[in-house]
Amino acid sequence: MKGFAEDLLARGPKYVVVKVGSRGAYLAASHGERQYIPAYQVRATDCTAAGDAFNGGLAVGLMKSPKIIGALQFASAVAALSVTRAGAQPSMPSKTEVSRFIKKGHLGESNEFLENTLHTMRADD
After folding, report:
1. Among all residues, which ones are annotated catalytic?
2. How far is the C-alpha of 37 from the C-alpha of 72, rounded, in Å?
């Protein structure tokens, strides 16, 4: 995983994120940062749309803040919720569901970032 990220980073992007399913994601940045972002532990029902949920959550997180780590943790929360129900589209969580999940204490160190991101989103974005 790390070697793959380094190979891609050598091609010029600012960031490389390697998703590794239920194990989380790995970030390699051109400025030297390397970090593993663990997945939230939930009881999975259907993993069909987990990657799509993660990607959508990452896009939302990046739109709300330039802090990549917080955006990745937000994406991980969205993906974690998506695997707790069946189907692809029906499994996508709303902002309210992500907010409840985060407020239940399923957070790492980025509580403030995630709460601020949720606060700035409309109810069902």
Report:
1. 52
2. 7
Nearest to 27 by CA among 65, 58, 60, 69: 69
Do 65 and 113 touch, CB atoms closer than 8 A?
yes
What architecture is the 2-120 domain classified under in CATH?
3-Layer(aba) Sandwich (3.40)
| DSSP assigned state of 94 | P
Residue 73's nearest CA partner among 43, 9, 118, 33 is: 118
Tokens at 50, concatenated: 């987990």
Q: Is 107 exposed, middle or buried (0-12, 13-18, 19+ CB in 10 A)?
A: middle
Count the alpha carbons within 13 Å of 58 in the hemisphere toward its beta carbon: 19
71-105 pLDDT, tens digit each = 998 899 999 999 999 989 889 998 788 878 877 86
CB 46 within 8 A of CB 71: no
The pTM (predicted TM-score) of the whole model is: 0.80
Give the residue extent of every domain in the chain.
2-120
